[in-house]
Design brief:
262 residues; 76% helix
């Protein structure tokens, strides 16, 4: 009787209830966030289709004067910067803003997954998406005759700091504004930085006074830094890295301080 009861009691709680290991939860949430992003048509248009079309169009049609050398050599670094911005800032701001509006973040915040781990999973999803973007854009650029130069480590540093800067800005916007305002503001900023951030149009085409201000934008620092390395074969662009590090520190700090989950 006792043995039977003991056996039954031991089997009742098998498997043992409780939350999964933290690393497994973060990995599962990262995979979920990535699948949701890749299944979203508007997000794919923003993060994949638009950068690819811009690279192909402006590399094959003489619309913008990009200076000496092949147009694809000038455009590819800028479009890579645009891809980082579209995913880490625009896409993340819009998706997180609507998750906050519909109460998704509130429910996830009450789950066994810590809130900092949820932000880590979102960042992981951004990085996975960016890797896919960079691979695709690199293949397209090579097909168009791109000839990159420079130190790959400098490129990685620029992309990581650019991701941090834009991610902080996106989370700050999503955590402080209403979802509709985030949608409008994120798309407006995307368009403004596309035109004025040295992605397609060289900053030298703008008035000198405007150039001084535009060079301090994160998209300008990222695109110019990537262009110095990949097109000119320069060393580590410390100035551009400093600008991106400043934006990353300020935006991530502000997002951590002012982000509202409800």
């Amino acid at each position: 009787m006792t043995a039977t009861g003991t056996a039954a009691g031991a089997g009742t709680f098998t498997p043992k209830p409780g939350r999964a290991p933290l690393g497994r939860m973060i990995a599962a949430q990262t995979a979920l966030e990535t699948r949701m992003l890749l299944r979203h048509g508007e997000q794919l248009l923003l993060t994949v289709v638009i950068p690819t079309l811009l690279l192909t169009l402006f590399s094959t049609v003489d619309v913008v004067d990009t200076g000496d050398g092949a147009a694809v050599d000038f455009l590819t670094p800028g479009v890579l910067a645009l891809a980082v911005m579209s995913t880490a800032f625009t896409g993340q701001a819009i998706s997180t803003g609507f998750e906050r509006r519909y109460g998704v973040l509130k429910r996830l915040g009450a789950s066994p997954l810590p809130r900092w781990a949820l932000m880590t999973a979102k960042t992981g999803s951004v990085l996975v998406t960016e890797i896919l973007q960079i691979v695709l854009l690199t293949l397209v650029a090579f097909a168009l005759g791109w000839s990159p130069h420079g130190n790959p480590l400098a490129v990685v540093l620029l992309l990581v700091l650019g991701t941090a800067a834009f991610s902080g800005l996106g989370l700050l916007m999503a955590g402080t504004l209403r979802a509709e305002a985030t949608l409008a503001a994120a798309n407006l900023v995307f368009l403004l930085l596309l035109v004025c951030g040295g992605v397609i149009v060289p900053l030298e085409k703008f008035p000198e006074g405007a150039q001084t201000v535009l060079q301090l934008l994160p998209i300008s620092a990222l695109s110019d830094g990537l262009r110095d390395v990949l097109q000119q074969g320069a060393g580590v662009p410390w100035g551009d890295l400093g600008v991106l590090a400043g934006w990353a520190a300020v935006s991530l700090g502000a997002a951590a301080r002012f982000f509202r989950w409800e």
